[in-house]
Amino acid sequence: MRFLLDDGQREFARSLDGMLAAAGTPGVARAWASGVHAPGRALWARLADTGVFALAVPERHGGLGPLPVELGVAFTELGRHAVPGPLVETVAAAAFLDRLGDETAAGAWLPGIATGKTVASLCLLSADSPYALDADAADAVLVVDGDTVRLSDGVGPVQMSLDPARRLFRPTGGQPLARGHAVTAAAAHAADVAALVTAAQSLGLGRTLLARTVAHAEQRTQFGVAIGSFQAVKHRLADALLGLEFAEPLLHAAALALAQGDPDSGGQIAAAKVAACEAACTAAGTALQIHGAIGYTDELDLSLWIRKARALRSAWGTPAACRARVLTT
Predict the structure, then answer these.
(1) Distance from first CA to last CA of the chain, Å, rounded?
(2) Per DSSP, what are the bridge partners of residue 172?
(3) Of 44, 96, 196, 241, which has the maximum CB count within 10 A?
(4) Residues of the chain with pLDDT under 70
(5) 29 C-beta neighbours (distance < 10 Å), count
(6) How much is the pLDDT for 127?
(7) Exposure letters 261-283 (e unless 16+ CB within 10 A, then b)
């Protein structure tokens, strides 16, 4: 299948790219990592004005969606600029509430998500994932434990993370909102949506890592010539590019399959997540090697992208789990 974005989708991507390029996202990410949320919430409101969160909310609750393809376009740009916050988790919460079948709960939270007034975090509890992302900044933290969902009313201390801008908390307390098969089915759907947009974020991260590394290789000299002229450097950059180019059509195809209700969309999403996250990590490794010792420093903005690429690799589906799902689909 050959899939290309249409003119409207490409213009949407360009408008987001332009807005975020002028938003100073490295500073926003550093503030968020330190627990200062005001710059991030201000950027969140601007993203909501462009319709990013409304893409995940059905029209009956004030949204535009659900529109998986457009969400993929948006989250590629969010990843390209390393925007912090529970972006994926808010979209996943919207998908969960939409599928849960509880119109009272949906009516309470989905309109606010669509307009950006509500920041949400969805946590699907498991041994591998006991944390809620950015729960200290969220207006609603939904915790799914088996066939039960509750609205958490507290969190423990912040936990260590590969990416300091991804603040992890153990959710505590809260009364059950719903139980049963509907919770399990809604959680499975939300996990697919989360994996899809995480893949899109990773693709965008990888694109920025590669672009900035190419620019660095063209400017840095050794033995009197640009290091980008060295064959070994060219090969590393080419490998990173091929991984990203391979991942992009997988992402678009998975988004289209989800939009069309394809019963095999879960396997396609898993394949796209593996490809995009591995490509982003390859780009991160290449960036670190070619930048040399400066690549290890917190002062270098690129470190924000490098750390996020590693963290997203295991978020919403480890590589092993995604590969296993591909093989069984």
Answers:
(1) 18
(2) 154
(3) 196
(4) 1-2, 127
(5) 27
(6) 67
(7) eeeebbbbbbbbbbbbbbbbbbb
